[in-house]
Amino acid sequence: MPSKTFRVPNISCGHCVMTIQREVGELEGVVSVKADEATKMVTVEWNEPPASWERIRTLLEEINYPPED
Known about the structure:
By secondary structure, the protein is α+β, with helices and mostly antiparallel strands. It is built from 2 helices and 3 strands; from the N terminus they run βαββα. The longest helix is centred in the N-terminal third of the chain and has 12 residues, at 14-25.
């Protein structure tokens, strides 16, 4: 099962964490999403297909939480 940990600089509060966890968690194939306000780090695990890193990354950009490369 693929997983990725990445930094999201736009995380500034608990609301941001909840939004990321809810939105990414609703993607088909995403198994878990853990975001941390203090470190601004997010870890996502997914089943591929139907989910993919490109789909997750695109969603994060759409909701204004683009991952840092």
